[in-house]
Design goal:
The chain has one domain (about 10-230): TIM Barrel, CATH 3.20.20.70. Helices cover about 45% and strands about 10% of the residues. The chain has helices at about 25-40, 60-75, 90-100, 120-130, 140-145, 150-160, 175-185, 195-205, 215-230, 230-240, 245-250, 255-265, 280-295; strands at about 10, 45, 80, 105-110, 135-140, 165-170, 190, 205-210. The radius of gyration is 18 Å and the shape is globular.
Length: about 300
């Protein structure tokens, strides 16, 4: 029996996780930051994603961060929980945990090591979907995992009732457009690149899970809200204005630069887990200059 499709929309930041000096999750600081994002107008929170450093966590921490996300959102906005893992068994276990904890949906990254066949990929998501009653979204990011889920596979899984959406972090927006075309807007399509929020919305995407939403949430929310209000020209100006900052953040793949940037705005967010490394001071100065241009710093 197919599940009733529940769609998610808007700007849903992949929230950072705040750790103490020993690498343990700081529950109170993490909850405080999530609550801050909500006050900035975001439409949902994605916990335990790549930006949240879930891949560097212990299994106990993976469960803990889900609990923290549920507590912090407390029904104010939807909570999407990252439950992906290379092991289907563990992805199922984490997804069940997220459902029982009170998450509104689970988001599972593509298993990538060892890389499965197309049929293995299909069976992986089928197994996770059959283990839970809440919506399952795919997290596809070829730049990180080495391959992407094809639009045809997305459509097949959606048609069979196993997935209800996808975070498509694909450099080629044609890939996202083809998913939108094949699924006919029946599932949630969330753009993963902050540089493509407005183009994706114009093609029919429902919103974006974007890292920069941790740093300038109100500015990113404005792109979505202006688009929904039909103010395309103003939305375009907002999208173009953040491009230099997007490009700066893209120079690092760990979360240290993002956290250092957030610190500039007065938030105590600690450091990223190793193997993240120190960010050169000249890059921090460039970020500071862009934040000033956006009116975030004096």
């Amino acid at each position: 029996m197919k599940k009733e499709v529940k769609k998610f929309s808007g700007i849903i930041p992949p929230s950072i996780t705040i750790f103490d000096a020993k690498g343990e999750i700081d529950r109170e600081k993490t909850k405080k930051f999530i609550k801050y994002l909500i006050t900035e107008g975001v439409h949902g929170i994605f916990i335990a994603g790549s930006t949240g450093e879930a891949s560097l966590m212990t299994m106990e921490q993976r469960r803990e961060i889900i609990d923290i996300g549920v507590e912090a959102t407390s029904g104010k906005v939807p909570l999407l929980a990252g439950t992906g893992h290379n092991s289907t068994r563990i992805a199922v276990e984490l997804s069940k945990y997220a459902q029982d904890a009170g998450a509104d949906a689970v988001v599972a990254l593509l298993p990538h090591y060892p890389r499965p066949s197309d049929e293995g990929l299909y069976q992986h998501y089928k197994a996770v979907a059959q283990a839970v009653d809440i919506p399952l979204l795919v997290y596809s990011w070829p730049g990180q995992y080495g391959y992407s889920m094809s639009p045809e596979m997305v459509a097949r899984l959606a048609k069979d009732g196993y997935i209800q959406g996808i975070k498509d972090t694909h450099e080629d927006i044609d890939h996202t457009a083809e998913i939108i075309r094949l699924t006919k807007g029946e599932i949630t399509i969330l753009e993963g690149y902050e540089s493509k929020i407005l183009p994706a919305l114009c093609l029919g995407a429902d919103g974006s899970i974007c890292t920069i939403g941790n740093l300038i949430p109100a500015e990113v929310v404005a792109i979505y809200n202006l688009f929904k209000s039909g103010k395309i020209e103003q939305a375009k100006e907002k999208q173009l204005a953040i491009f230099p900052l997007i490009n700066l953040l893209a120079t690092r793949h760990d979360s240290q630069l993002l956290k250092d940037s957030i610190k500039l705005l007065g938030h105590d967010v600690g450091d990223a887990l190793m193997p993240a490394s120190k960010v050169p001071s000249d890059i921090i100065e460039k970020v500071k200059a862009e934040l000033k241009k956006l009116g975030k710093l004096k």
